[in-house]
Structures are given as C-alpha cells and as structure tokens.
Amino acid sequence: xxxxxxxxxxxxxxxxxxxxxxxxxxxxxxxxxxxxxxxxxxxxxxxxxxxxxxxxxxxxxxxxxxxxxxxxxxxxxxxxxxxxxxxxxxxxxxxxxxxxxxxxxxxxxxxxxxxxxxxxxxxxx
Length: 125
Hints:
The chain is 6% helix and 54% strand. It has one helix and ten strands, in the order ββββαββββββ. A hairpin with a 5-residue loop joins β5 and β6. It is globular.
C-alpha cells in the first residue's frame, strides 16, 4: 500500500522514489491527479537533475480544450514494493501521479486537511 496525506489545498499527496541516471534514488512528493490519464509528470528542472532519457514527443488535449505538445522521458520508480520503468511527461507544474500508474489500484482519500491518502492494489477476482 502507498500512503500519503491531503494538504491545505485539498490535494492528495504521496511520496515517490525515482531513480536518477546516476543510480541514486530521489524522493519527490507528487499530487494524485485523477484527471491525468498518463503515468507521471515531472517539471523540466527535476527531469534535468535526474538526467532522464528522452524517448519521444507527446500530444494531449488539456481540460480547457487546447492542445499541448511535450517531451516524454523514461524513468524507474519504486511503486508499491517494486521497480517499474515508466514514461514521464514533462510539464511545467507540480509533479503529478496519473491514472495509468494507479491502474489496478484503489484510491481512498479523506478530503480534509491532513486526511489520509491510501493507494492499495486490488486483488484479482
């Protein structure tokens, strides 16, 4: 299970461990964003610090209807006890955990300041 808490802005926050290209593990807080269907987004300065490998360009339609073109990198993250290689979308925003990373999991959020955030694997039927 992955645990976190709700901040004063009612954002569900969890900590992630991300491997840099140097093999070091970096810890980064990220906002759980159920409106983001990608895996994980990181800002350009963090992508540069981690020295992530560029993979391709991506395209998305934003909530306001505008189109956005962005870089996609690759990183290894430690997620629920295992290392996963995932795509990282570059975005000028706070780091965001998307729905693709949480696929197969249940998200429980107590929506009040300091409320708990729990992401747990759903057992197969």
